[in-house]
C-alpha cells in the first residue's frame, strides 16, 4: 500500500503564467479574500501514519476556492470593462464566485449555467444581485451563450479555469499552504478544468519539484484525465455525479490548463461515487463539516486506499467547497455514518 510520491517532472517554462503573477494576485485579492485555515486531521493521520492536513477552502464567503480566481480576474479589468460588466458560464461555484466578486465591486454580472446545476447553487447565485441565465445541456452550451453576450452587449467573459488571472488566483492557495507548512511533501486536489491544480502546481513545483501534486476526479466524465491520456484536449460524455463541481469539459481550444496540468500534476486518479460519499460522511463525522462531493473526493480516495500515502509524509488535501443541497448531503452520507 505504501508507494513513494511520484517522481516529479518539473518544467517551469512553456507557460506565460509565473509565480510572480500568483504573488501579484495575492496582493490584489487580500482585501476581499481571507486566508483559509490549514487543519491537521488527527483521525486520518493516525490511520495512515502520516501527517495529513486539510485546507479549508469551503470557508470562503462564496463557499468555494473559486472566489480567489474570480476576484483576481475582475480586479484586473480596466475601468471601462468594469463599467460594462462581466459574464461567465459555470457548473455553479465559479458563477457564484463571479457574482459575489462583481457585487463587491458594484459591477453588472450575468451568469449562464446549464440545466444540470443543482438548486442550491442556483439559489445562491440568485441571492446575489447577478442576472441568471439557465441555458442548454452542459457547460459547452452555457459557454457559447456567454461569448454571444460578449459580442452583443460587450460583457467581459470570466472563464472558470482557462485564464491566467483565474489560475494565478487559485495559486494563492499554495502560497498559504507553504506559509503554514513549508515542509509539505504532497498536495491532493479535485481536478476538473484544471485551474486549481495549474495554480497550485505552478507554485509547488517552482518551490520544490519534489512536492507531489495529485489530481482526483470522478470515474465517469473526467475530461482532463481523458485528455491527458489522449495527449490533447478531448471531450467526454457528461454523467451526473455527486462531485458535480468536477463535471464539464476542458475546452477544445484549451490554452493554459491542459499544458500546465500535464507539466505540474504527477498523477491523475479516477474515484468511484461511493468513495466520494464516504469522504463526505467522514468529514462530517470526524471534522464536523458539511462539504460537497468535489471537496471530499481526496479524503475518500485516501480512506479507500486508492491514493497511496507514504509513511511520515506531510500531505495536504484541498477541501474545495460546500455548495451542496442539504437533502443531497444527508442522503449521500447516511449509509456511511
Ligand atoms: C471547480 C471546482 C473544483 C475543480 O477545479 P478546476 O479548476 O476546475 O480543476 C474542485 N472543487 C470544487 C468545489 C470546485 O468548485
What would you note in describing this structure?
The protein is of the alpha/beta class and 337 residues long. It folds into two domains: 2-64 and 163-336, Rossmann fold; 66-157, Rossmann fold. Helices cover 45% and strands 14% of the residues. It is built from 14 helices and ten strands. The strands form two sheets. A six-stranded mixed beta sheet has the order 1-2-10-7-8-9, with helices on both faces. Strands 5-4-3-6 form a four-stranded parallel beta sheet, sandwiched between helices. Helix 5 (93-105) links the parallel strand 3 (86-90) and strand 4 (109-113). The longest helix is centred in the middle third of the chain and has 17 residues, at 164-180. It is globular, with a radius of gyration of 18 Å. The two termini are 25 Å apart. It binds pyridoxal-5'-phosphate.
| CATH-level-2 architecture of the largest domain | 3-Layer(aba) Sandwich
What would CATH call the class of the largest domain?
A: Alpha Beta
Main structural class: alpha/beta
The CATH topology of the largest domain turns out to be Rossmann fold
Bound molecules: pyridoxal-5'-phosphate
> Fraction of residues in helices?
40-55%
Overall pLDDT, averaged?
A: 93
Question: What is the domain tally?
Answer: 2
- Helix-strand sequence: HEHEHHEHEHEHEHEHEHHEHHEH
Q: What summary fits the major beta sheet?
A: 6 strands, mixed
Q: Give the radius of gyration.
A: 18 Å
The number of helical runs is 14
What sort of overall outline do the alpha carbons produce when their principal axes are compared? Answer: globular
Instruction: Please report the distance between the alpha carbons of the first and last residues.
Output: 25 Å
Strand share of the residues?
A: 5-15%
Taking strands numbered 1, 2, ... along the chain, how are they ordered across the largest sheet?
Answer: 1-2-10-7-8-9
Uncertain regions: pLDDT < 50 for 5+ in a row? 1-14
Domain Tryptophan synthase beta chain-like PALP: 30-321
EC number: 4.3.1.19
Family: Belongs to the serine/threonine dehydratase family.
GO biological process, one term: isoleucine biosynthetic process
Amino acid at each position: 500500500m505504501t508507494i513513494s510520491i511520484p517522481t516529479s517532472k518539473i518544467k517551469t517554462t512553456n507557460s506565460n503564467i509565473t509565480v510572480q503573477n500568483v504573488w501579484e494576485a495575492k496582493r490584489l485579492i487580500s482585501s476581499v479574500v481571507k486566508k483559509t485555515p490549514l487543519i491537521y486531521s488527527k483521525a486520518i493521520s493516525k490511520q495512515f501514519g502520516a501527517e495529513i492536513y486539510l485546507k479549508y477552502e469551503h470557508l470562503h464567503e462564496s463557499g468555494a476556492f473559486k472566489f480567489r480566481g474570480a476576484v483576481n480576474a475582475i480586479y484586473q479589468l480596466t475601468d471601462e470593462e468594469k463599467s460594462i460588466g462581466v459574464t461567465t458560464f459555470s457548473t455553479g461555484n465559479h458563477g457564484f464566485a463571479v457574482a459575489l466578486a462583481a457585487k463587491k465591486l458594484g459591477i453588472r454580472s450575468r451568469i449562464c449555467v446549464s440545466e444540470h446545476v443543482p438548486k442550491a447553487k442556483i439559489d445562491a447565485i440568485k441571492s446575489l444581485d447577478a442576472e441568471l441565465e439557465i441555458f442548454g445541456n452542459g457547460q459547452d452550451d452555457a459557454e457559447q451563450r456567454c461569448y454571444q453576450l460578449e459580442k452583443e452587449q460587450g460583457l467581459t467573459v470570466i472563464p472558470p479555469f482557462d485564464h491566467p488571472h483565474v489560475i494565478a488566483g487559485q495559486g494563492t492557495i499554495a502560497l498559504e499552504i507553504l506559509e503554514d507548512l513549508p515542509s509539505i511533501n504532497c498536495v491532493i486536489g479535485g481536478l476538473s478544468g484544471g485551474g486549481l491544480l495549474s495554480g497550485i502546481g505552478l507554485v509547488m513545483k517552482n518551490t520544490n519539484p519534489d512536492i507531489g501534486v495529485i489530481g482526483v476526479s470522478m470515474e465517469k466524465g473526467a475530461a482532463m484525465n481523458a485528455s491527458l491520456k489522449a495527449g490533447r484536449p478531448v471531450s467526454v460524455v457528461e454523467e451526473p455525479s455527486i462531485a458535480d463541481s468536477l463535471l464539464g469539459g476542458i475546452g477544445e481550444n484549451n490554452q493554459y490548463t491542459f499544458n500546465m496540468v500535464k507539466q505540474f500534476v504527477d498523477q491523475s486518479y479516477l474515484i468511484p461515487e461511493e468513495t466520494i460519499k464516504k469522504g463526505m460522511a467522514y468529514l462530517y463525522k470526524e471534522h464536523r463539516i458539511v462539504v460537497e462531493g468535489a471537496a471530499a473526493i481526496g479524503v475518500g480516495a485516501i480512506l479507500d486506499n486508492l491514493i497511496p500515502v507514504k509513511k511520515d509524509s506531510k500531505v495536504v488535501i484541498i477541501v474545495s467547497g460546500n455548495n451542496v443541497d442539504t437533502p443531497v448531503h444527508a442522503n449521500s452520507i447516511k449509509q456511511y455514518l
